[in-house]
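Discussion board: Methods & Data

I've been asked by a reviewer to show the raw model output for two of the constructs in my manuscript, not just the figures. I'm not sure how much to include, so I'm pasting the format here to get opinions. Each protein appears as its amino acid sequence followed by a line of discrete structure tokens. Is this the kind of thing reviewers expect to see in a supplement, or should I convert it first? Here is construct A:
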Amino acid sequence: MTLAGRRALITGGGSGAGADLARGFAAAGAEVVIAGRRRAALEAVAASAPGIRWVGADVTDEASVAAMFAAAGPCDIVIANAGAADSGVMARTTLAQWNAMLAVNLTGAFLTLRDGLNQLPGWGRLIAVASTAGLKGYAKVAPYAAAKHGVVGMVRSLALEVAKRPVTVNALCPGFLDTPMTDHSIAVIVQKTGRSPAEARAALEGLNPQGRLIQPAEVTAAALWLCGPGSEGMNGQAITIAGGEL
């Protein structure tokens, strides 16, 4: 499969799944634009492979998202990948924590997909990187899970709006990924429970029936498939990448 002649924009492209997506789409021949807030990280990813350039953006800010698309140019593929995680029991969750999780994980996806849709030149693929937390509940991450559930609902609704066009909208829902975000989750578990890092990691691996963390390359492979021939009927789906979880 080749994506030569296509331009893909990937938010949160400076690390983790976003960086892997950028390299994977560039290897498939697409012109890739990565976006995010951390310039040094974006520059490093852009320098790591040909065909990748970067744009600074804050997906929680409407004007910044508009400027992101203006700088990128017309994009055929838009991947709303930017996200953040936090944890804590609901009873002690502040409104500020709640709003922060919704801002980046849900509002950021909304702004990215809305503006991405409005600038599509014709054929298009809109993909949101959600989470298994968008399909089920996990203790101590209520704001994050609520945001990801919102992403899945938004994707399913938007898919019906574009169904008569050569455009599809889907969500990828990985389990815990082997990325810096999960490393942060492990650090939080260590801090709050006194477990060792190895024990904390094993606890997250245990949520996957295969007993492992999901690799970013698995998310990239699924996203590439959604952009290739034979995926035209995949629309409004929340595709679980979690080794059988759920």
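Construct B, same format:
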Amino acid sequence: MIYFTLFLEFFKVGAFSFGGGAAMLPMLEQMVEHHGWMTQEQLYNFVGVSESTPGPIAVNLSTYIGTILGGPFGALCATTGVVLPSFLIILIVAKAYRQFKENQYIGNALDMLKPVIVGLLGCATISIAANIFSGFDIQRFAGGLLTAQNGISFFVIICAGIFTIKKMHPIAIILACSGIGALLGYVILG
């Protein structure tokens, strides 16, 4: 039963979340809360991992959640569910594009989706910020600014900015900053 539920729920997420992976976060939050699959904090941890691994966040998140809930077959069901709507829509759009590319109604419909996407992204941002800053203590935060971990993070961010200005290839920037962060973390933090 979990496999069908994973497929169906992620199919809904894939079918109705326009604007990319971040726009699907409000739907995912509601889904995992409704089913009691995980806490918001766990979901946000999955979001962090999904953002830092290669590939689209929607595919990564569905794979991680599916694996936790149903093992490898759960991952397959969730991932197929989230990808299938986009695949089908692209097939239909590609088939009909030549006929409708100059159609004013189609253009208007696509223009109307833009504010919806902004709203979904805004909702995701507010939801994540509310979770992160709940119980926020400014004094503890200010005292914690001068930690070794934050110093390493700031240094890596500065290096990333310098590498970007120097027009380094993005993969080289990722590798260089990862190496610098790992080296400094090992040397300073032990």
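Answer (T.O., handling editor elsewhere):
This is acceptable in a supplement if you add a one-line summary per construct. For B, something like: The chain has a mean pLDDT of 82.
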